[in-house]
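A reminder from the course coordinator: this example appears on the midterm review sheet, so study it carefully.

Given structure:
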């Protein structure tokens, strides 16, 4: 698992959340068909993949994805980039979002 010191409840919540991301997003680099690939999102330019249907909200935002900006976007996509096509997550639980961001760093480091 991404973070071996997660307790089993936190781990279950994380797996369930990542499964939801995967309904739209691929974790394979370059697979941007339904939504931008999340494979190397950490440190990447915002709206920087080959995905062709980015909203103006995201392409016009500028900057990079860091733990901080990812946390803000996932907590409240519309507050971070008003008009973005990314739906809000079912849970805005801070610990969960922190763990999702940690997972995104983990996949980036290993693919
Ligand atoms: C219903 C489909 C859907 C789900 C579920 C979803 N996303 Fe997204 N996501 C999108 C779309 C579409 C975009 C592009 C948004 C835009 O252009 O405004 C996006 C954009 C993003 C971006 C910006 C990527 C970039 O290239 O700049 C990140 C990061 C992201 N999503 C993370 C997640 C995570 C993490 C989850 C799960 C916790 C998730 N998304 C769940 C559809 C989804």
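Designed residues:
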């Amino acid at each position: 698992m991404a973070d071996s010191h997660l307790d089993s409840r936190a781990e279950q919540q994380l797996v369930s959340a990542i499964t939801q991301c995967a309904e739209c997003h691929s974790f394979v680099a370059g697979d941007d068909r339904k939504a931008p690939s999340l494979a190397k999102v950490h440190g990447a330019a915002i709206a920087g993949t080959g995905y062709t249907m980015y909203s103006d909200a995201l392409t016009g935002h500028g900057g990079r994805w860091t733990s901080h900006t990812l946390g803000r976007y996932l907590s409240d996509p519309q507050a971070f980039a008003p008009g973005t096509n990314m739906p809000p997550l079912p849970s805005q639980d801070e610990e969960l979002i922190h763990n999702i961001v940690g997972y995104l760093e983990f996949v980036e480091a290993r693919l």
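The mean pLDDT is 92. The pocket of heme C is lined by residues 17, 20-21, 23-25, 35-36, 38, 41, 46-49, 54-55, 57-58, 65, 70, 74, 84-87, 89, 100 (CB under 6 Å).
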